[in-house]
Amino acid sequence: MISKDDVGGVHIKYLYHCPRQLWLYARGIRPEHLNDTVRLGEAVHDTSYTRHTPVNLGAARLDFLDGRLWGHEVKSSNGPTQADEAQGRHYCHRLRAVGIDANGTVLHYPKTRRTHRHPFTDEAARQAQADIESALTTIARPTSPDRLPRRRCVGCSRYRR
Questions:
Q1: Keywords for this entry (predicted)?
Q2: Dist CA 20 CA 115 (whole Å)
Q3: What CATH number has the domain spanning 4-153?
Q4: Global confidence as pTM
Q5: Where are the domains of the chain?
Q6: What values do phi and psi take at 103, rounded to 5?
Q7: More confident position, 135 or 159
Q8: Percentage, residues of the chain above pLDDT 90
Q9: Could you give the CA distance from residue 91 to residue 102 in angstroms, rounded to a whole number?
Q10: How many angstroms separate the CA atoms of 113 and 122, rounded?
């Protein structure tokens, strides 16, 4: 399967969003490109903050890092979720692992013109490590986690009507 170093931001986002989605994603089942919501998110990402250079962290890719060592992520949703915050924490964890003392993450929501700043505290660092362990546990399961209630699955790229 995958190691701690292979866990990327998408894995952590899916851990919070839907463990079943994480389990399927880790096995190469990735129909995201067929989903209109995902394509909209990619368009928002591609047309926002175009002057900045993405930061490749191996299994993770941060949208950009500013001169004050705050990581920035552009999101297509209307507002913050636990999954967004966890993904930002993970990027800070990855930055620190390569020797960059990240201060935290700024989440940008262009649709609502809002930003949310999340400092990378000692508690956030512990949670980031726990998230990696939880993702690895979920991925290692022999069978997929149960589906979430239907109302949570309707917008999912893996949902069949």
A1: Exonuclease, Hydrolase, Nuclease
A2: 29
A3: 3.90.320.10
A4: 0.83
A5: 4-153
A6: -85, -25
A7: 135
A8: 63
A9: 9
A10: 29
